[in-house]
Amino acid sequence: MAELIVIRHGQASFGADNYDRLSPAGHEQSRLAGALLRARGWVPDRIVVGSLVRQLETLNSMGYDNPEIHAGFNEYDFHNLLHTRYNGEVPDLVMGDRKTHFRTLRETIFEWQDGGLAGASESWLDFTTRTEDALATATREGAERVLVVSSGGVIGQTVASVVGAAPKMMMTLNLQVKNTSMTKIIFSGKKRFLHEFNATPHLDSPEFAEMLTYS
Predict the structure, then answer these.
(1) Edge to edge, what strands does the sheet with 182-188 contain?
(2) What crossing angle do the helices spanning 53-62 and 24-39 adopt, rounded to 10°?
(3) Which of 21, 94, 96, 100 has a CA positioned 20 to 30 A from the CA of residue 137?
(4) What share of the chain is helix, strand, coil (3-state, %, to 5)?
(5) CA 71 to centroid of chain Cα atoms
(6) C-alpha triplet 104, 156, 12: angle, nearest 5°
């Protein structure tokens, strides 16, 4: 059976004017992830990445190039969802305080899943449909080892879908996903099986333990 490894992007720039770029730590996390795959002799014969800067920078710092671009692997637009929820007046605490930010993230996604946030740029159904299309594209015939770089929400939704979990499990998984973690899915045709979730073997040694991040 073929293997799909989905990497979450490296640490982005939380709290900065432009979140969509890697921090110095994010580049180093990505470099270590790529080095580990090469040390294991795991060579992808298909590479797919979303179109977000932090995803593309992760792939580049891993040492890979010439990917297929599929916007279905892009993260949901949380800023748009927040602006829809708060009618354009998002409290400063939501964007500046990490604990408040992630609590609000969970609440907002649950409301979105329940059909709320009318007027958002993307509905929950649109999100699940395009993530499934992205997964189908990545796992189409013609490759035995597929590397994908994506984001936490997409990874959470992908895993929830593969194991047949309830929709709200997506958010539980999303908030667990570590930067540059590796989620492995075994596939054959349309059959998909979760083999490994959220692993960070490249950061497991004491030397790199402080590099473990979630945003």
Answers:
(1) 68-69, 46-49, 145-150, 2-8, 182-188, 191-199
(2) 50
(3) 21
(4) 45, 15, 35
(5) 12
(6) 65
What would the pLDDT profile of 31-53 be if each residue is shown by its tens digit? 999 999 999 999 999 999 999 99
Nearest to 184 by CA among 172, 193, 171: 193
CA distances to 1, 11, 56, 100 from 106, in Å: 35, 20, 26, 10
Q: Where are any strands of DSSP class E within 92-205? A: 145-150, 182-188, 191-199
Res. 92 pLDDT band, cuts 50 70 90: confident
Rg over alpha carbons for the chain, rounded to the nearest Å, is 17
**Rounded distance, CA 207 to CA 211, Å?**
9
- State pTM to two decimals: 0.94
What distance in Å separates the CA atoms of residue 186 and residue 130, rounded to the nearest whole number?
20
Give percent of the chain above pLDDT 90: 88
pLDDT of 171 > 90? The answer is: yes
User: What is the amino acid identity at position 1?
Assistant: M
Give the number of other CB atoms < 10 A from CB of residue 18.
9
71, 76, 136 from 68: Cα distances, Å: 10, 20, 13
Length in residues, the chain: 215
User: In this structure, are strands 182-188 and 191-199 parallel, antiparallel, or unpaired?
Assistant: antiparallel
- Written as six digits, the tokens of 154 are 């997409």
Q: Residue written as tokens 């179109």?
A: 51
Helix axes 152-163, 124-138, angle to 10 degrees: 80
